[in-house]
Amino acid sequence: MRRAAALPLAALALSGCTVPTFGASAGDTTSSRSVYHLWQGFSIGAAIIGTLVLVLLAWAILRYRRKGDAIPTQYQYHIPLELTYTIVPILIVFGLFAATMVVENKEVANPPTKVTIDVNAFQWGWKFSYPGTNAVVVGQTTQTPVMVMPVNTDVHINLTSTDVIHGFYVKAFNFSRYALPGIDNQFTFRAVNTGTFFGQCTQLCGLYHSLMFFKVKVVSASAYQTWLAGFTNSAAAQAAAAAQAGQSATYVPTKVTNSSGVK
Ligand SMILES: [Cu+2]
User: Fold this and answer.
1) How far apart are CA 121 and CA 160, in angstroms?
2) What is the DSSP letter of 26?
3) What pLDDT score does 237 carry?
4) From ligand 1's centre to the CA of 131, what distance in Å?
5) 205 C-alpha to ligand 1 centroid (Å)
6) Sheet holding 115-122, edge to edge
7) How far is the CA of 196 from the centre of ligand 1 (A)?
8) Residue 238 φ/ψ region, left for φ over 0, alpha for ψ in the -120 to 50 degree band, beta for the rest
9) pLDDT at residue 238 tops 70
10) Which end of the chain is more exposed for a tag (fewer CB within 10 A), N or C?
């Protein structure tokens, strides 16, 4: 019994005291890491309480198994015991709630930022515009538009929807938020690693919901400036370039409909 109990502890000690992931990922933003640590805390708490309950159950079953026909000592209306098993779980729930609030407040905090991206979801794609610049990226279904953002920088996101409810989800950021028509959802990302991360709509929003993909590309601050500079500097120049390329300067996303007209 003692040896069996020592096994998980030994495993933990041998792993160099690194806390297990419990199936989650630390992610690539500061807030994804807070969420990850919260998850680790919850998992460790659950493991401790689960183990305690199992050990006490086993102990009660073995120690107080039936030994004869005599009625055992009765313990109902044992006020201190009843108070303990009411108050202890309430304290645990308050602890979990407080820890969640701390992390959640960080998650929805909106510190002043230098970079802002307006993210607009529509059936069935995404538009990323960068206020104060000419940069606009828009794409739908199989076009998988890319949201470029600088690393180690607070990036403010304004999330809106043109038509129905969509879900803005970036797996590597441990982050999901509804894009709601008429509501401006705001949050801040601070990516800690460069890389390209997968994102998608997580709210069933119509025919091509399953193709409503995007990517988040986190680049160095200088690469971000270069990328921004790649967009022409005046609306007139942009229109001229677009005319040269045989396109309209303003991209109007065309809705994909099937013959039955079902959206
Ligand atoms: Cu959607």
Assistant:
1) 6
2) -
3) 55
4) 23
5) 5
6) 136-140, 125-129, 115-122, 154-161, 185-190
7) 21
8) alpha
9) no
10) N
Q: In the numeric block, which tokens belong to residue 256?
A: 């994909």
Structure tokens at 156: 């403010």
HSE toward the beta carbon, residue 23, CA cutoff 13 A: 3
Q: State pLDDT tens for residues 156-199.
A: 999 999 999 999 999 999 999 999 999 999 999 999 999 999 99
Residues within 5 Å of ion ligand 1, judged at the Cβ atom: 166, 201, 205, 212
pTM for the full predicted model: 0.74
**How is residue 191 annotated by DSSP?**
B
Rounded to whole angstroms, the Cα distance separating 7 from 231 reads: 59
For the chain, the domains span 2-107, 115-232
Question: In CATH, what class is 115-232?
Answer: mainly beta
Please, what sign has the CA dihedral across residues 100, 170, 47, 2?
negative
Q: How far is the CA of 251 from the centre of ligand 1 (A)?
A: 19
Place of tokens 């991206």: 117
Give distance in angstroms: CA of 201 to centre of ligand 1.
Answer: 5
pLDDT of residue 92: 94
Is the distance from CB of 218 to CB of 198 less than 8 angstroms? Answer: no
DSSP string, 88-134: HHHHHHHHHHHHHHHHHHHHT-----SEEEEEEEETTEEEEE-TTSS
Q: And the tokens for 161? A: 């929807």
What's the rounded Cα separation, in Å, for the pair 216 and 30?
16
